[in-house]
Amino acid sequence: MAENLTKEELKQYDGKDGHKAYVAIDGTIYDVTNVAAWPNGEHHGNGAGKDLSEAIMASPHKKSVLAKLPVVGKLI
């Protein structure tokens, strides 16, 4: 089920205490909950529950990893 979330609502999906881990990239929200590289909602200093559009462009993989992730909604 697709969800439209504000940045404030997205913060709840931080991957901690049993919460799902979502990240927003260019307005699309991806679920990284079951991604091994995102334990406890953390990945190379980046935290889930945030808009990481700028951070992903500074990463070595850029947006190439996004195709593997489930889309859960849009950032509004």
UniProtKB/TrEMBL annotation:
Domain Cytochrome b5 heme-binding: residue ranges:
5-76
Tell me which positions the record assigns to the signal sequence: none
Q: Under which name does UniProt file this protein?
A: Cytochrome B5
Which source organism does the UniProt entry give?
A: Secundilactobacillus mixtipabuli
